[in-house]
């Protein structure tokens, strides 16, 4: 009873505040996020919580809308002026928080800085590497030269925060964290930062875009799911991200909390070991004796394992509905999505027949490894897959472990099959194709996360062509072809695409984002 | 260890005197004193019951919760009392994988008890021996052992266990080993602290004057007098071992997820507490609690009975 | 005495050397920090660059030697994640953990000693039995579970206390403390109690055991025979004797409370160094892990030394060995 009264009172008070015309916009918001913000230096550690903060404080030339489509940011427009040259027109009249003008000089500086940031564990240089030359045409026009045609440059630059040359020349990561140079052109200004605890921001009154709603933003870091949920239910925070799937069903019935949802850009999939041809310590027959050949190299075995997975059951029972069964890298509406490529219906008999055809009528034993601390319900999905495979005679030895351990073992192919995930923040298919399924190649920078060392020359050729095709329509067709070829060969087994879920007080409205970022500019009070 | 060492001290006396039944031996006195406390007897009964369930789990559980082929996620998170797809009733409900909680608890009890008792016994043997040795020998031996203890105690046990498990991989034996490495120092320090005081007492000097062998002085004279604090620490360490195993499982490093202990069942269900599916975490929690409390009730009373200084 | 101290300090240095080596090898064995820190978009070349940037391409013994060299100059390395000196990161968070641990210790003593005294003096009374059963519950419940239950009841259901986090802070002598503000105390109450639960039980049991033993001793009988008041017997003679185990254990426990506040800190999102270490372990931020352990070891050695010294002050039979 008491809570109801408190909430009602709170709702009444905030409704009053929203209703008052003069004070209507002058409000504070407290957001609790589940992932650690590791640095305020927007060019130090490429990590999504850091992107989210960079987009509040700094901003980039291009950006992504809620669906992950590219949109103008600090650049108003861009176009290729030659096969190897992109021209960006900057937004006029943009000022940094300290009053300095934003010019092409600043762009040149910001693009040159990432490789020079010391000790970076995950450098932003991968997004600026394509730039081979810079030409400043006038203060609001800049031309960037690439090594041959490079269609992805505007997408890559969406990740690179724009800095003020005058302020940030020689600035260290510590100077950003202490707030000394946490100065950008974003909708919010820096107030204070306590690492691992909270970031305090205030409105940038001179923001170039729509005026931010919140006068003061308290961005709290609560990594424990239960604690974050409890803070929401207790009313200590106005909004949380990464709502645990177990709580979603109950929260839908809860009047003090409202949810916002969006189909995400993160695919959860299984990979298989393609690196070994013969015996593997992670595969054996039902008596535990090693198999002379790696069964996973046989397409029929991969198809059988794929058909055995009941995706709707996983989505419904493990993910409690907050995921979409999938048969490809990305959800519909994204660049490179293949229309009509739908998940197969699970079918135990077909799967058994395929196994028998391949010479394994009684199945075999397999080590199925995966992380237990990285993706939503990762360990549960692993066990569910283990159950489903046991129905066709494939006995899975399920091993769930912390990501740090798993990643090292995945690099050494210490598994038969593994579960992993991939988030494509840029919402276009070249990213997963290049990293997850392309034949690993150090020179090309391909297959960096291809744990099973899968290889398909046909798909590689399509990808190669796509990466130098400036025509969007032709590039999309090539990416669709590469995706189709890979999926028909069961290069990976996609399971589902996650939905991103936020919870907030009922008097708030949130534009949920596909790329999982939690930003204060996406929240506003509900219209009265 | 404490409980089993006593009968050995008592029974030979009975055989030497050769007298039937009626003679009061230290062991009989201990037994009759132990049974004076109703709570302790209650604890013992519950504990024996828990051990019995754990031992018989494969025969009395309705399902083998460790066999993935017997689980069905379509039966996941069913409320207590629901009849599942396999045709039998889930009296305590199911977890997210469709695992029957009753069977899960029976099997989990097995693992938790084995891990807790196993690690405590080994840690106590190792720790107490080293502690006694340190106190009795003194000098360099003492210094070396105690700096080893300092080293061990200064290492947060969760971190130590985490590293050991990351190094060795998951598994019940590895958890036991990690717990032993983490816990032995507590016994060593406790025993040494008491023994340091005891060894300066007259009865040790007297024993030394009688030229009794060192091992005899240590085990027959010093050890029994160090027992009371050892039992206090011992009971707490069994509880700690089980709780630490739960915490390790909570952090994802304990037993394998397909073979959950009580701790892992609680951690799995803990995420469902806020959403109202209490049974996944609640019943294993109760089972764990009852087990630990029963151990502690027994240990608590044992301490009172064993303490020689309370019997003057 | 000076010789004794010098020896202990030398031993401390050896212990710390051994610890740093163990941690170095241990973290190395667990996995590769680059795997978790690096952007998934990174390719092999970027991966190699990151490994080189963090100095992880060198052989382990070279990494260790360069660490030792820097450590002798007081530099324990920079965090891989935050790119700030590890020592500075930990020191920033230490006040939060210290006030949590001290709060819990004070709670344990204030609640534990009177209850333990009562239970020891009147062991047969129903209240004493309730206290003892309660103390058994106190260390039977898993900390993380109790923490969540407390949040459920006191923050979510009753709304009396804030659910998580640290409250307003006041700057005193360059560090920020929250126990000086009302808001800070409200935030501190639940996590401190959560952390104290185990210790309250411990103090109750130790006090009770001590009282029961001491009351039967000859000097107590003698004191009573001498006609001293019951109060004087209990609070002077008995109390002095039971303080030895209580001092030992509470002293030892203060260190471990600081070390083990990790669970409480993660449940209550308390921004202390326990939370930092768990986060650092998750991403294998070795400089922070090593620096944290160095600090903890130093603390433990100091505490052990103090406990040993106070032992000899409280019980003249224990002599500091000077051989």
Automatic annotation (TrEMBL), chain A:
Lineage top rank: taxon: Bacteria
Record has Transport as a keyword: yes
Bias type Polar residues, positions: 430-440
Coiled-coil ranges (or none): none
Protein name, entry field: ABC transporter substrate-binding protein
Originating organism: Teichococcus wenyumeiae
CDD domains: PBP2_NikA_DppA_OppA_like_2 (cd08498)
Alphabetical keyword list: Signal, Transport
Position of the signal peptide: 1-26
Disordered as annotated region, ranges: 430-457
Record's GO cellular component terms: ATP-binding cassette (ABC) transporter complex; outer membrane-bounded periplasmic space
SUPFAM superfamilies: Periplasmic binding protein-like II (SSF53850)
Domain Solute-binding protein family: 70-438
Subcellular location: Periplasm
Family: Belongs to the bacterial solute-binding protein 5 family.
Taxonomic lineage from the root: Bacteria, Pseudomonadati, Pseudomonadota, Alphaproteobacteria, Acetobacterales
TrEMBL record, chain B:
Biological process, per Gene Ontology: transmembrane transport
PANTHER family noted in UniProt: ABC TRANSPORTER PERMEASE PROTEIN (PTHR43386:SF26), OLIGOPEPTIDE TRANSPORT SYSTEM PERMEASE PROTEIN APPC (PTHR43386)
Regions crossing the membrane: 40-61, 111-138, 158-182, 238-258, 278-299
Coiled coil residues, start to end: none
Subcellular location: Cell membrane
Species name: Teichococcus wenyumeiae
Record protein name field: ABC transporter permease
Upper lineage: Bacteria, Pseudomonadati, Pseudomonadota, Alphaproteobacteria, Acetobacterales
UniProt domain ABC transmembrane type-1: residue ranges: 109-299
Keyword terms, alphabetized: Cell membrane, Membrane, Transmembrane, Transmembrane helix, Transport
GO cellular component terms attached to this protein's record: plasma membrane
Signal sequence range: none
TrEMBL record, chain C:
Keyword match Membrane: yes
Main location class: membrane
Keyword Transmembrane helix recorded: yes
Membrane-related topology note: Multi-pass membrane protein
Alphabetical UniProt keywords: Cell membrane, Membrane, Transmembrane, Transmembrane helix, Transport
GO biological process, one term: transmembrane transport
Classification via InterPro entries: BPD_transp_1_N, MetI-like, MetI-like_sf
Pfam families: BPD_transp_1 (PF00528), BPD_transp_1_N (PF19300)
Domain of life where this protein originates: Bacteria
GO CC, one annotated term: plasma membrane
Segments passing through the bilayer: 12-31, 100-121, 133-156, 188-207, 242-269, 289-314
ABC transmembrane type-1 domain: residues covered: 94-307
Family under the similarity heading: Belongs to the binding-protein-dependent transport system permease family.
Protein name: ABC transporter permease
